[in-house]
Amino acid sequence: MRPRDDDRHGEPGGDGPRPPADGTERYPDPAERTLAAEAIAEGMGGAGPGEIPGRLCEVAVRLLPVTGASASLRGDGVPVQLCASSDLAAYLSDVQATLGEGPCLQAAETGGPVLARDLTTGPDARRWPVYAQYATAVGVRAVYALPLGNDSVCVGTLDLYRDTPGTLTGPQLHTARLVAAVMTVALMALPHGEEYDVQGGEPWLSGLAAGHDEVYRAVGMIMAQLGVGADEALARLRAHAFAHGRTAHDVARDVVTHRERFERDR
Q1: What's the pTM value of the predicted model, to 2 decimals?
Q2: Which listed residue, 69, 82, 140, 233, has the most CB atoms within 10 A of its CB?
Q3: Cβ contact 141:164 at 8 Å
Q4: Each residue of 109-162: pLDDT tens digit?
Q5: Which residues span the domain enclosing 178?
């Protein structure tokens, strides 16, 4: 990914990993890089295409001072969750998709890493107040989001969750970037039409696309029901999900299957 000025903190221009005061190198030495690469390779051993993102999330949790990890594909409006290392990580990924705010959505939009080092107070908590409230309520104090993609396109994000405030050191950020880079290669190298899971079931990426199409179909139905534009329809869907403690994808599924209908305000 192209370097950016906001490759530091939750808000452009904020604090982030800097060289130590003693002048030591901020990047890992060759031995550390080798250990990280070996751990990633070992974690992916024997994995099918659909398992690789999940395996890499687990590797990230082992290598870094984080308690959970998830990955999502970027979408127009609502990202699609690829995998998560735990129920907590999956929950926080869904929260951002439902709210439409958070460091992971910003990373997808800007194409640069977003390191929210303290969601309990300060700039990060103020930038994403509702998301910060949800995250801290379940014990997450910091979130680090790294884009998946290349210099011209961001296809999603690798999202890391930590239970204590703080940022990543230079070597830790380097390791996180390495995990994200390997995940990007795995996603982009996946042969079209051969993206089946190891059980031989539904095509993996096709299944994710179908879930995202469900949101678009629901938005279209809400537009017709309320006589509003696409942006407002998506906002209404998100607001309904938020008010009822559900995810945007769950509400979309109910709309598409006619279990949920939006009524015009009287």
Answers
A1: 0.71
A2: 69
A3: yes
A4: 999 999 999 999 999 999 999 999 999 999 999 999 999 987 778 888 999 999
A5: 30-188
